[in-house]
Amino acid sequence: MNGLERAWFWFRSRPRRYHGVAAGILFWILWMIFGFWRVLLLFVLAAVGYAGGRVWEENQSWRRILERLLTDR
């Protein structure tokens, strides 16, 4: 196991609050480098990509998902 793998396993074994701190620091660094709106666009596009990948991975149809989201409950 190399150093990067050990560091990754060490980080994963930490409590979730440290993961949140790391995500906040990463967001702040990206914000300082690229600006708020570009970082926000990056996160929105990443979320859309994640959702699309999940639909594709589970062989679901977009129509079924939209119907589930837009139906009256």
From TrEMBL:
Bilayer-spanning residue ranges: 21-51
Pfam families cross-referenced by the UniProt entry: DUF2273
Keywords: Membrane, Transmembrane, Transmembrane helix
Superkingdom to which the source organism belongs: Bacteria
Stated name of the protein: Small integral membrane protein
Species of provenance: Alicyclobacillus acidocaldarius (strain Tc-4-1) (Bacillus acidocaldarius)
